[in-house]
Amino acid sequence: MAIKSFHPPQRILMGPGPSDVSSRVLEAMSRPTIGHLDPMFVAMMDEMKELLKYAFQTKNELTMPVSAPGSAGMETCFVNLVEPGDKVIVCQNGVFGGRMKENVERCGGVAVMVQDEWGRAIDPQKLEDALKANPDTKVVAFVHAETSTGAQSDAKTLVGVAHQYSCLTIVDTVTSLGGSPVKVDEWDIDATYSGSQKCLSCTPGLSPVSFSARAQDKIKSRKTKVQSWFMDLNLVMGYWGAATKRAYHHTAPINALYGLHESLVMLQEEGLENSWARHQKNHLALRAGMEAMGLQFVVPVAERLPQLNAITVPDGVDDAAVRAALLNDYQLEIGAGLGVMAGKVWRFGLMGYACTPRNVLVCLGALDDVLGRLNAPIRRGVAVAAAQKVLAG
Ligand SMILES: *Cc1c(COP(=O)(O)O)cnc(C)c1O
């Protein structure tokens, strides 16, 4: 049998990413492929850097998308800023902090782990205690928005503590960028990476990064070569850097970059503050519906991310059966629990283009139906109305 073209179904993506991609972005990606050194393409790259600086709220010259997913942005930060023997404090409150540890160790660094409960924000006091106990620490790394649990940490305070001890900071803003405030300059973050497929609502496969002047100094004064050729920013800057001749480094993912450009234009049109407010409002509507049903959030109110809602699976309910019914009967994708939360929580994303009143109402209605059919212990028929009340307010 001949294999034919692949035609995916139209889903509603309300998991931990990817999120829904607008037709505007998909259309941009279908435009003609041109050369990665074409002057027209280079002009688009310059615009892309400006758009990313806006999204990150930074003037950092070294702001650009890495040609690979968020995990590669993470790795780019670590391989450039960590040299063999460097001590790095990693604050962990979920799955992604564990990956930071892996990165430190693979760079030959020494990871000092500061553990917080999963589902809670990172405690700045614990970081301070660790810095006092480890005065030779060079870098502090943490995840701003833990997608595995839906907890948001106070990045500004954590970076401030790290700087009191003269450490550079690496901050994961994969899930926060575009959906809740990320202020790279005001918070004085040294290195950050994000992802194209969460609140920026582009296709997966690109990782915006930004590095402060302090971080660049460290990269330039390294005693050892960056262990990764592909991610060595000293080389990448020959292609992405300002006032360079734009020499070939690797072939940029040209059409993917058209897509990111378009999604960032959309973010600029909406305005960052409006985007943050939209995520917050739809989150509050979803929350009202969930709570009306009697479902519980994992994270305490003050530490919740609007764009990632982790809900405890009620006792006796089959986590996977609910997700399968949502997907098959409603074309609705939500996320499963990760790590220690596997089977115990559902993760409802409200990210970027998927963060709409329509999706909130569809999701609550679908969940009400599916849980009802499975005789789950919820209050039926009240969730949508509770959300509507918030949306109307
Ligand atoms: C999704 C995510 C990543 C990884 O991004 P990929 O694009 O999947 O490689 C890293 N950190 C956080 C917090 C994420 O949510």
TL;DR of this structure?
With 393 residues, this protein is an alpha/beta fold. The protein is 42% helix and 15% strand. It has 14 helices and 14 strands.
Distance between the termini: 56 Å
* Fourth-tier CATH superfamily name of the largest domain: Type I PLP-dependent aspartate aminotransferase-like (Major domain)
Mean pLDDT metric: 97
Instruction: Output the structural class.
Output: alpha/beta
Count the E strands: 14
Uncertain parts: none
Shape call? globular
Q: Please give the count of helices.
A: 14
> Residue share in helices?
40-55%
User: Sheet with the most strands?
Assistant: 7 strands, mixed
Q: Roughly how many Å is the radius of gyration?
A: 21 Å
Strand order, sheet with most strands: 2-10-9-8-5-3-4
Bound ligands, each once: pyridoxal-5'-phosphate
Order of helices and strands: EHHEHEHEHEEEHEHEEHHHHEHEEEHH
Q: Write the CATH fold name of the largest domain.
A: Aspartate Aminotransferase, domain 2
Total domain units: 2
Query: According to CATH, what is the class of the largest domain?
Result: Alpha Beta
Strand content: 5-15%
